[in-house]
Amino acid sequence: MYLTRKTGEMEKILEIKNLYVGRIDGTKILPVLNNIELSIYKGELFCLVGESGSGKTTLALSIIRLLPKSFRILSGEIILCNKKITGISEELIRGLRGKLVSMIFQDPGAYLDPLFNIDTHLRESFHGNPVEFNQLKIKVITEVGLSPEILSVYPHQLSGGQQQRVLIAMALINNPSIIIADEPTTALDVLTTKQIIKLLDQIRIKHNPGMLFITHDLNLALSTGTRIGIMYRGCIVEIFKPNKEKPLHPYTKILMGYSEENHSDISDTTLMDTKQETDEKCIFFERCPEKKPLCNRKVDFIWRDETTGIRCIKYGQNSQM
To answer: Is the keyword Ligase in the record (predicted)?
Structure first.
């Protein structure tokens, strides 16, 4: 049994401190994630929003320690249910995947093995004895809205929505403390998307895990998330509570403008600059409509309170702007 860190009445089940991730390119290390600060609490739905290439999936893969071979966690800490997982062996982390944290991947058709039926997929995901599995598999597959008969079916015989429900069942079967959903509705139609979102919310309410929901649909995040994190070029630039406070970061305000114009899908926007800035100035400096000369310097993430914060020198404790 793992303990959780409590903040007031909230139980902190994921804590990321000053995380840096890089990609090895020959003799160079290219920055991918920079100074990531993030906490997720039991029972909340935290939506992480950003353009394609902003680092959302890399952050998710860092949490479950499934980064591609050329990627490295350079520094920082990832703490799951009071257990530091940065630096521990692959053997130990394998024992924690599924139990503490599980992930619903973006493309179920690519993730599900066509040679195995659904029963085998669930069995391979389960950490426990066969007797427990036989009792649990019917319960879990039914909970995600599928018939038990589907256990004998193979992935290619299912629709995209059914495949996604299978991935959700695989993520749920060990009753993890945190579930990461990496753009689980990207390839689905509008009706199926609504059904999957409703299912995830029902699971959150019933089982009370923390959920990290990754999306490029800002309107979806605004309508479903308890908190929203905005990513830009490998950094979380703001964390805020929708409907409770106005976003302050210039980049967030630009995205909110797109949202108000009904351009909620930001995956194809062009605000991301392909040029890598140095670590010595604000990452949004070149494109910021509110920049001042003082902004041309490095700025870390600043927590406004225990649950919201911003990466902008304008709102620092010693701001001179």
So the answer is: no
Pairwise CA distance, residues 208 & 111, whole Å: 26
For the segment 58-90, what is each residue's pLDDT rounded down to a tens digit?
A: 999 999 999 999 999 999 999 999 999 998 888
Can you give the pLDDT at residue 106? 87
- Contact residues for 130 (Cβ-Cβ < 8 A; gap 6+): none
Residue written as tokens 């990627």? 71
Euclidean distance between the first and the last CA atom of the chain, given in angstroms as a whole number:
48
pLDDT in the model for residue 271: 45
Tell me the whole-structure pTM to 2 decimals.
Answer: 0.88
Is the model more confident about 147 or about 110? 147
Check pLDDT > 90 for residue 7.
no
User: In angstroms, rounded to a whole number, what is the distance separating the alpha carbons of residues 81 and 13?
Assistant: 5
Class of domain 5-100+176-315: alpha beta
Provide the pairing of β-strand 10-25 with 5-7: antiparallel
- Strands annotated E in 42-184: 45-50, 71-80, 83-84, 101-104, 178-182
- Is the dihedral angle over the CA atoms 48, 51, 57, 62 positive or is it negative? negative
Which residues face 240 on adjacent strands?
Answer: 228
Tell me how far apart the alpha carbons of residues 58 and 75 are, in angstroms, rounded to a whole number.
15
